[in-house]
Amino acid sequence: NVVLVVMESFTGRLTGCLGGAPALSPQLDKLAQEGLLLERCYATGERTIQGLEAAACSFPPLPGEGGVKRPQARHDFFTLASVLRPRGYATNFLYGGQGIFDHMLGFFLANGYDRFIEEKDFPAPHYKGPWGVSDEDLFDRADQEFRRFHASRQPFFATILTVSLHSPWQFPSGKTALVGADTAVPPGFELAELNNFLYADYCIGQFIRTARSAPYFDDTLFVFVGDHGVHLRGNQLIPIDEYIVPAVFLAPAHIAAGRVSAVTSQIDLPPTIM
Q: Per-residue b/e over 170-198, b at no fewer than 16 CB within 10 Å?
């Protein structure tokens, strides 16, 4: 089994295992110690859809419209799902928002994915923000699906796109300790965003803690990767260091813990997974 988690707005600038400051990813940092961490993994673009095209399709960003919106990509476009489904894998895409965003629903269902689970498929979410149901709801649903696949002896590939870490930085209270009001906020960030980052990280930790007790865990490769760098819109030279995103391969029964210092990008993830 393979689970690819593309994490909205996860940047190396705030990821502790990559030296980010303030370090706001204690849960992901623990997974990085146990798994294989790509220390210099670069996002291919500045938008979520570009990260998805790279991480799920090994496709570079194009000028103008993203690949998923183009008519030429409406069928026979390479995805990890298109490789694994003919080999007997159930292929699911799970997203807390609406699939019409960036034409994701149409693209992924046309290119190897059996199902696209979206906001409307969560009838009673614990928390719903401006961008959709919370990552807690998303990961809970993913765990339910994975247990069902395992019970039926069905190998699976799933892509999960998180949504909780997004402006206007709304998230359920009481889940994590908040950063102090006197915290030095890095340029380009807001204090509320830092607290939102902690919540999104909390959801990842909760997901893996739940998965560890599940029968599918030992037979599953989990891949976590941030989605994009800073938004420039062509206004300035690209600040390369701000495009470093966390990328962790976790499969304790199969992959030894370690760190890779070579330069990599999201485009390298699909061939590495295979």
A: bbeeebbeebeeeeeeeeeeeebbbbbbb
